[in-house]
Amino acid sequence: MKIKQIPLKAKNALAVGNVLEANAILGDVFSLAGKVVAGRQVGRTLGFPTANLKLNDGSPFYLANGVYAVKIRYKSLFYNGMVNIGMRPTFNQNEITIEVNIFDFSDDLYGQDLILYFFDRLRDEMKFPNLEALKLQIILDKQRILELLTNRTEPYPDSK
Predict the structure, then answer these.
(1) Segment 48-99, tens digit of pLDDT
(2) In a designed cystine with 128, which of 34, 115, 133, 147 is the match (CB 3.0 to 4.6 A)?
(3) Taking Cα atoms as reference points, which of 73, 75, 152, 74 lies closest to residue 120?
(4) Which CATH number is associated with domain 8-151?
(5) Which residues does 58 contact at the CB level (< 8 Å), separation at least 6?
(6) Domain layout of the chain by residue ranges
(7) Helix H segments across the chain?
């Protein structure tokens, strides 16, 4: 995947989580590429396993912390999913992670390359009082993302 120059106006939009504006400026869908690395595996205990992404060298990163609606390219197939970018405040983590939950997917992804295509930002990252409240919010996020991504037909830059 070729790394593109991102105009300052699009970078600024991404920095505040405005993916819709950034995509309009770019005339394309903003994407990030990376390799799946081992995480703490907390998501799977909630019923939402996540792939922790380590960005490829040179992959642009301008996104505000929060939860995003994405399509994920794995090998030559596309999947709907959600991404949490941030510090995982419910778990008192002190480093930024990129955690991807791919809907209706169960393969082992460790060491695999993924491309994330960002369509919208749902909300800020939040600290929840307990794991049950977090799980409930993830269920609501997934429902909203499925509504957002159903029948999306935007072209993907590296799939043409």
Answers:
(1) 788 999 998 767 678 999 999 999 999 999 999 999 998 877 777 778 889 9
(2) 133
(3) 152
(4) 2.40.30.30
(5) 3
(6) 8-151
(7) 8-15, 19-26, 42-45, 131-149
